[in-house]
């Protein structure tokens, strides 16, 4: 972790005139653009987490918010109003910030980036970090979608994952969100945690279906290098569920959620219709990513992709704050997207969705027909039962979703 230099040890009276932003080839006013704001703070760091998140930095919250507000304004000057379709507060645990800070950030995003009236505004929250009055304040500020990191409602599952809330607290937070007026709520769950059985997963599915949120994100536990969980696994102290059991859990979820009226619209995501026969309440912000549309990310470690470039900010929240306060660049790097890489990413991202890959639409966008570039690979994947392939496009089968990495590796451009 990089800490501030001595010249940044005390809170400044105000930011310098300008902190440099990365260059993009042109402003982008695509109607699909999304704005992401990264909030890196957590009460505790979970065993499995390798996100850019940090515990024990409460003293930095106010300075970080001030720096993020400054970057929002600077990006507005650099790129002009981008008519943002979505706004997403990710982390970390954005719900650790006071509602008035979230309200100020939303106001800045609307003022400097044209976040549209009625736009989807999502805030990630952990159970037990919110209460009814604060949730009402967030709703009044313009947050209209909450995403709760529940992960499990089994007490031993929460312990295995190192979560700091109880199942009862998770349910209470969800019920408070409903009382505060939230009508679009996502719940995150993890399967494959150490010691989990299929009966445990069925119990979690029972619980989530009883709550009936608009959206569910279900992720297989991944042992990421450098995390406490990885060290425990390497020491032989814990063992995550094996691949066959995880596959059974995934198939069980797909079957039960379909029967309950949820649409399996992305590999790990399900949404139910807003009304009988109506469209599913998919996450509009994440669809920006999966449809390979442009997005702007602000805050420490945030990534952006538009104007033919991908670029990202410094990871450390302290370094990020100090750079903004001193008028220094916050960008840590960037790269131009080659035509081959841009096409490959489009194909792989589109295949994550149930709508799949439309050959004509992708060819019109990239000037290259996926059938010409990937014909043999697509045919092989279809023969293996991983793709449904026809003249119009391609879609992952259920088996293909289970083995999506094996699909995507065949579509990477040659080095």
How would you briefly describe this protein structure?
The chain is of the alpha/beta class.
Question: How would you describe what is shown here?
Answer:
The protein folds into 2 domains: 12-290, Aldolase class I (TIM Barrel), CATH 3.20.20.70; 339-415, Arc Repressor Mutant, subunit A, CATH 1.10.10. It has 15 helices and 17 strands. The chain has helices spanning 61-79, 99-113, 132-141, 155-161, 167-179, 198-211, 228-234, 243-259, 284-290, 317-326, 339-352, 359-366, 370-383, 398-402, 404-409, and strands at residues 34-39, 41-42, 54-55, 86-91, 120-125, 145-151, 185-191, 215-220, 263-266, 269-271, 295-298, 303-306, 309-313, 331-336, 357-358, 387-389, 393-396. It has a 9-stranded mixed beta sheet with strand order 9-10-8-7-6-5-4-1-11, sandwiched between helices. A 3-stranded antiparallel beta sheet has the order 12-13-14, with no helix packed on it. It has a 3-stranded antiparallel beta sheet with strand order 15-17-16. Helix 6 runs parallel beside helix 8 (243-259). The radius of gyration is 22 Å and the shape is globular. The two termini are 32 Å apart. 43% of the residues are buried.
Main beta sheet: 9 strands, mixed
CATH homology-level superfamily of the largest domain: Aldolase class I
In the CATH scheme, the class of the largest domain would be: Alpha Beta
Radius of gyration: 22 Å
| Main sheet: strand order | 9-10-8-7-6-5-4-1-11
Give the count of helical stretches.
Answer: 15
Strand content: 15-25%
> In angstroms, what separates the terminal alpha carbons?
32 Å
Low-confidence stretches: 1-21, 23-30
* CATH fold label of the largest domain: TIM Barrel
Helix content: 40-55%
Mean pLDDT: 90
């Amino acid at each position: 972790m990089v800490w501030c230099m001595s010249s940044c040890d005390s809170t400044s009276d105000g930011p310098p005139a300008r902190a440099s932003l990365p260059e993009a080839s042109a402003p982008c006013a695509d109607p699909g653009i999304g704005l992401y704001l990264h909030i890196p703070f957590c009460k505790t760091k979970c065993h499995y987490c390798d996100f850019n998140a940090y515990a024990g930095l409460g003293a930095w919250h106010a300075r970080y918010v001030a720096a993020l507000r400054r970057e929002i304004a600077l990006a507005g000057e650099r790129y002009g109003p981008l008519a943002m379709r979505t706004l997403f507060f990710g982390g970390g645990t954005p719900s650790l910030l006071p509602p008035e800070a979230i309200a100020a950030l939303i106001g800045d995003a609307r003022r400097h980036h044209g976040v549209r009236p009625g736009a989807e505004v999502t805030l990630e929250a952990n159970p037990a970090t919110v209460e009814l009055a604060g949730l009402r304040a967030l709703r009044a500020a313009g947050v209209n979608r909450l995403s709760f990191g529940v992960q499990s409602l089994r007490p031993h599952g929460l312990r295995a994952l190192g979560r700091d809330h109880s199942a009862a607290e998770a349910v209470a937070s969800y019920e408070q969100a409903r009382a505060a007026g939230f009508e679009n709520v996502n719940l995150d769950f993890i399967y494959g945690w150490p010691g989990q059985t299929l009966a445990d997963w069925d119990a979690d599915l029972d619980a989530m279906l009883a709550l009936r949120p608009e959206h569910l994100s279900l992720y297989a536990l991944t042992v990421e290098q450098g995390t406490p969980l990885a060290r425990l696994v390497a020491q032989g102290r814990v063992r995550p569920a094996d691949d066959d059991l995880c596959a059974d859990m995934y198939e069980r979820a797909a079957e039960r959620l379909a029967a309950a009226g949820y649409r399996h619209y992305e590999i790990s995501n399900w949404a139910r219709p807003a009304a009988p026969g109506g469209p599913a309440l998919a996450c509009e912000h994440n669809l920006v990513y999966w449809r390979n549309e442009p997005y702007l990310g602000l805050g420490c470690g945030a990534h952006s992709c538009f104007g033919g470039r991908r670029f990202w900010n410094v990871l450390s929240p302290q370094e990020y704050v100090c750079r903004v306060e001193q008028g220094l660049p916050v960008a840590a790097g960037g790269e131009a997207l080659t035509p081959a890489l841009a096409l490959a990413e489009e194909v792989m991202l589109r295949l994550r969705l149930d709508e799949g890959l439309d050959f004509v639409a992708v060819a019109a966008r990239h000037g290259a027909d996926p059938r010409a570039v990937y014909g043999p690979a697509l045919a092989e994947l279809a023969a293996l039962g991983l793709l449904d392939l026809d003249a119009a496009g391609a879609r992952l089968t259920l088996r293909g979703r289970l083995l999506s990495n094996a699909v995507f590796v065949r579509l990477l451009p040659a080095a």
